[in-house]
Amino acid sequence: MDSGVVLRTENLSKVYNGGYVRVAALKNVNLAIGRGEFVTIIGPSGSGKSTLLNLLGALDRPTSGKVYIDGIDIYSYGDRELAIIRNRKIGFIFQAFNLINRTTVLRNVEMPAIIAGVQKDVRAAKAMQLLKMLGIDDKAAFKPISLSGGQQQRVAIARALINDPAIILADEPTGNLDSRTGLEVVELLNTLCSKYNKTVIMVTHNLEHASISTRSIYIRDGMIEKEVVYQ
Amino acid sequence: MDIIKITQLAFDALRERKIRSILTILMVTTGTSLLIAVNGLTTGFLAFADRQFSMLAPNVIFVSPAPTEGGGLGGGPPPAPKIVLTSVVVDRIKNLPAVSDAIPNYTGAVAIESRGKVQNARVFAQDATKIYSIAPGIEFYEGSIISNNQSSIIISERIARPPGETVPFATLGQTVVVKYSYVDEDGERKTNSRTLVVRGIFKLTGNPTIDGAAIIHPDVANMLMNKKSRYDGIVVLARNSDLVEDVEDGIKRLYGNDVGITSSKVILTTIRQFIGGITTFLFSIAVISLVVGAIGIITTLYTSVLERTREIGILKAIGAQNRHILLLFLMEALIIGSIGAVVGIPLGMAGGDLLSNLAPGNREAPPDARSRPLYTAEDIARVCALSIGLSAVSGLYPSFRASRLDPIVALGRL
To answer: Please, what CATH class does the domain formed by A37-61+79-229 belong to?
Structure first.
């Protein structure tokens, strides 16, 4: 594990204004995550896990506080730059896979590289290499809808890796999978850290999965309740 | 993301919603083809009118007794015209400073008998040697010398060779009998007839009045039609086309509103104005139809944005910028508009041709005397730009909405 901090937050807060009600989803969260670390975020529903992941992934803007990726305060940038950060530095894996079903597995995996403007032969070769690594290269021409849940999540992992991002954010990636497949996915994410030095931050409810990670951050009521280091 | 990839993605999205996309394209196609057909028919008809009137010299002015007001149905017989066009009137007009000539004429409906058959024709009786001064564009099918012989008759190609007949009605050098029936002062119905020799057959012009006409000597017509030297009209030639208005003013000064004055220029302007009015009306309908197509695009794309909210969220999560999403949806509108225009233009041209061929006047006229739709590259480019431009404008709002979607809202993560 590289000890350099790749992601850091500083008094990160998020308040949602819903008409007459103001909900503080996140309150002054400070954390630092190193390169190659596998961190799990654990907490009950409504504790602020997904809000934290949205903010770490440049999907939303905080009410106050800062998020640094590679030392850069990402929210000092505009929407265009945030989109570029999401494209180059972050890979998302969602519980519901979020694949585009009208197009092929290969095209889904290629999509972030298409957005980045990578040449066709380069991105196709990279996508195939990733699909092979994840054991689904024979499904390249299939539509995602025709694959099993575990296979669809592997496609999503391949898509998250295509632009070689430093950070992988996974929001309950095993939520729609059976326990065996879920465990395979978590082990795969762990491999990404140990073998490819990727920083993985995964939201989960599953303590068995959390124990595979290097560190668990427990969140409750929008605040960090405790941290558990496993290794 | 380059424009080629955006185009491919837009095509994929349209293919996924095939029926809806085809129906929207059909709306644009209808508007485009209507615009093309209306434009082509109008341009063709205007060119046709110009061609017809270019047969008349631009310095020609027609003078006739002014139509009388009052009388007629329920109010007794119409009063006689206030002016009688005699040789004195002709001479007075001829003496106006800007006038080069005044050619009096008689007109009437006659029956022409030849080879045991009869044809009705409108006869123009005037000095035949001056026909080129009035209609320089007239061409002869047979017989090239127009003589002022009293025994001559010049007939149109349609009279000589009626459409659908294999045997000619009359040929050059042949005699025909021209008959005219009228009721005299004593209330007696009389028929005068005269045997004349066909000295010329002129080519069809496309003008039904001219194409059904015969030209005879005025003295013969005066006797035949019992005109008593009262002319039906005078064709006045101004010294040049710039003096037409001066001549009109001169005639007005002499006879006020007792005469009707029409110049070929005025007739053409009136026809152009009339066609312009009709065209504006038809064009409005065509544009409305295109606007309906544009609303169809807005509906289709807006529905698409709603259906693809999650997809927009996914694209944004993996790094698509607002402009990528905007371009993606705008490209779909452009593809709909472009396909609509590309299909609509040939369809409109074919429709215009079909309508033109179905028009009764055109069906009977010879090919070179038909009003054909005219499609200029400029008009086609203009309609094409309008269809595609309107489609792009229609796509703006849904595209903008899509591009502004908040990724966490679009992904349902809020």
So the answer is: alpha beta
